[in-house]
Amino acid sequence: MASCSNASNNEYNYDYDVFVNYHGLKVKKTLASHLQRCLSRNGLRVFPGKQELQFTSQIEMEGVIPTAAVHIAIFSPCYAESSQCLNELVQMVQSGSTVIPVFYDVKVSDLRWTKEGNGVYAQALRDLQDKKIFDSETLEEKALHCPNTIGQWRKALFDVAGKSGFELDTYNRDEGKLVYKIVKQVLKKLKYHFTYDVFINHRGPDVKHTFASHLYHCLRAHGLQVFLDIEELQKGETITPQIERAIQRSTIHIAIFSENYAQSIWCLHELSLMLQSGSTIIPVFYGVEPLDLQGTDGKYSICLNELGQQVQHDYQTRQTIPRHDSSKVTNWRNALLNASKIDGFNLQECNRDEGKLVHRLVQKVLSEIVTQNAAKHPTCERKRDFLTSVFRFLVRDIWRLVFRFLVHIWRLVFRFLTLNIWKSVFRYLARHI
């Protein structure tokens, strides 16, 4: 029941589908080689390929970057040693196209903290910053890379670190599986724009790997397209906008209110967006009661008060300011209040049987989707009613006609036989009397 719209690669008007950015002979002969071949086998136009190896100039390479729909940056330990790779990365970020980071034996933090950190990338950038060249005009040494260029590299690395990507350690260092996942994501990014049947809003540490996981897989087993952030985040996109788009594109929202739900500003922000979207919301009270979402004495109210009291230091004014605006906290409080008034499901009412609760939720979701589809497509509903009436006619009315026909035939046969018997009797009597 998932809905998606196909979009051919021609829609993008790009010369290449994928641009692969990497550094180092080891990466070139292992991960990058397998990845490029696998992408090509799936019919994608990849740069650099065999015919593009003639591009050796950095200026020529950078000219190709805006002509690719998707960029893949493979961050290896030696990546930041290459000024060419860093310049390409700046171009990739500035192009506005999707950038998919692949963390190959490096950590995300290595990309974030390159100015004051002690990671491999911080040290590599300091080395590049200290590089000197001899100026034949002034007969003096000067910096090879200007501070502005170093700043652009640091900003590009920081921006890409905020995108959802792939880590080799996540797949138990299985490069084959990593390549498969990357290619699958690229194909999905280029060809499909998904809408979702269900969006699951939840507090990760409470239920992500337990109740939310069971619910997700049960809904998927019924053919529904479900968004659960750990499963559905598209690699290469900033996390917050992608979740917001998923909320807007979902037919039904399920909000799982667990004990620590209100401690997460992400959960509260998602809940506000869900209420603003106008789509159906099904609240699930998992270890809490609707009253906990209301008033000033509930569990959630205490968490909201703590969020309202959090402060941060403003480096511009050198003053302490609230971390969360009071209007934002009020908006979260109102969202919780409105959600508590919606008829939902309570784990306590199922005798804390999670399997029973999941079953009831799935049945409710299926019922809602059928109802909404009927409202959206009344023509289809009329066609279904027509087919139903035809089926009833075939099953009931035709058999009734057949039965009547058989009864009529039997009567005719009975009359014919009865008449012949009486005729025979009269003839016998007339002959012997």
Keywords:
15 strands, 433 residues, 17 helices, disordered N terminus
How would you explain this protein's 3D organization?
- With 433 residues, the protein is of the alpha/beta class.
- Helix content is 53%, strand content 17%.
- It is built from 17 helices and 15 strands.
- The protein has helices at 25-29, 31-41, 58-64, 83-95, 108-112, 120-130, 147-161, 175-191, 204-207, 211-221, 229-232, 239-248, 265-277, 299-309, 326-340, 354-376, 378-432; strands at residues 3-6, 16-21, 46-47, 68-75, 98-103, 132-135, 140-143, 166-167, 192-201, 226-227, 250-257, 280-285, 311-314, 319-322, 345-346.
- The strands form four sheets. Strands 1, 9, 10, 11, 12 and 15 form a six-stranded mixed beta sheet that branches.
- A hairpin with a 4-residue loop joins strand 13 and strand 14.
- Helix 4 crosses helix 7 (147-161), helix 12 packs parallel to helix 13 and helix 13 (265-277) packs across helix 15 (326-340).
- Residues 1-12 and 50-56 have low confidence and may be disordered.
Topology:
Layout: E1 3-6, E2 16-21, H1 25-29, H2 31-41, E3 46-47, H3 58-64, E4 68-75, H4 83-95, E5 98-103, H5 108-112, H6 120-130, E6 132-135, E7 140-143, H7 147-161, E8 166-167, H8 175-191, E9 192-201, H9 204-207, H10 211-221, E10 226-227, H11 229-232, H12 239-248, E11 250-257, H13 265-277, E12 280-285, H14 299-309, E13 311-314, E14 319-322, H15 326-340, E15 345-346, H16 354-376, H17 378-432
Parallel strand pairs: 2-3, 2-4, 4-5, 5-8, 9-10, 9-11, 11-12, 12-15
Antiparallel strand pairs: 1-9, 6-7, 13-14
